[in-house]
UniProtKB/TrEMBL annotation:
Catalytic residue list: D33, D35
High-level lineage: Eukaryota, Metazoa, Spiralia, Lophotrochozoa, Mollusca
Superkingdom as given in the UniProt entry: Eukaryota
InterPro entries: 5'(3')-deoxyribonucleotidase, HAD-like_sf, HAD_sf
SUPFAM superfamilies the record matches: HAD-like (SSF56784)
GO aspect biological process, one term: pyrimidine deoxyribonucleotide catabolic process
Name by which UniProt lists this protein: Uncharacterized protein
GO cellular component: mitochondrion
């Protein structure tokens, strides 16, 4: 465990988070996914897809099934896969994602809670050219520049340390077979068929506070 700093309060890491030092207490480390947890990827996708391809078939939100939109559209028509991709790799797509209702005030309140550190943990598209910088811009625009130091970009979230990962992707696999975090599934249309998982359904009914308080007691 890290030793407490001697006197240098300008140490950059101690400014970034309510850092856990070896004072015999521990902060709960919460990892928040970005797309479909803080930012409405699916809703924005449909709007943009219908604008760009008004004559094509599309999948209504309440008919979504499976994590990747592209996979479901390709089942409708195999030519739709490239059109789906064209929508979300376009410049501005990630920057213009609307907020998931209540996510921003909840993230701010969570980060201000005693004994809680919050990070944003997001996977980039492999076609990262617009997506990567726009994820940072989105966080700066919606949460503020002080949150830029809390962004973790990882293709493989299983190797990231933390106590809780709140993420809409129902199955998160990677090279670490027993990740440090407990996965709380953030409910989305595409994952509502998945059973037997601890969930957070929304940011508006206050249940996120109960989850955080419960985990604070367990660490
Ligand atoms: O249908 C799709 C296609 C791509 N994505 C992308 O996957 C990652 C997931 O990111 P998280 O921040 O971990 O949610 C991201 O690059 C999306 O653009 C998707 O979510 N759905
Ligand atoms: Mg997501």
């Amino acid at each position: 465990m890290k030793k407490p700093p001697t006197q240098d309060k300008t140490d950059i890491m101690s400014r970034r988070t309510k850092q856990t030092y070896d004072y015999g207490q521990k902060n709960l480390c919460v990892l928040l996914d970005l797309d479909q947890v803080l930012a409405d990827f699916e809703g924005h996708f449909i709007t943009k897809f219908r604008e760009k391809f008004p004559d094509d078939r599309f999948v209504q939100l309440d008919e979504r099934k499976g994590f990747y939109i592209k996979d479901q559209y390709e089942k409708l028509d195999r030519n739709l896969g490239d059109k789906v991709r064209a929508v979300y790799i376009e410049k501005g797509f990630f920057l213009d994602l609307p907020e998931i209702k209540g996510a921003i005030p909840a993230a701010r309140e969570m980060a201000a809670m005693d004994g809680v550190d919050v990070f944003i943990c997001s996977s980039p598209l492999t076609e990262y050219q617009n997506c990567l910088s726009e994820k940072f811009e989105w966080v700066e625009k919606h949460l503020g520049p002080e949150w830029l130091d809390r962004i973790i970009i990882a293709k493989d979230k299983t190797v990231i340390n933390g106590h809780i990962l709140i993420d809409d992707r129902p199955y998160i696999n990677g090279s670490c077979k027993s990740p440090a975090w407990k996965h709380i599934v953030f409910t989305a249309h595409h994952n509502r068929h998945v059973e037997g998982r601890q969930r957070l359904d929304n940011w508006t009914d206050g249940t996120w506070r109960d989850i955080i308080e419960d985990f604070k007691k367990r660490i």
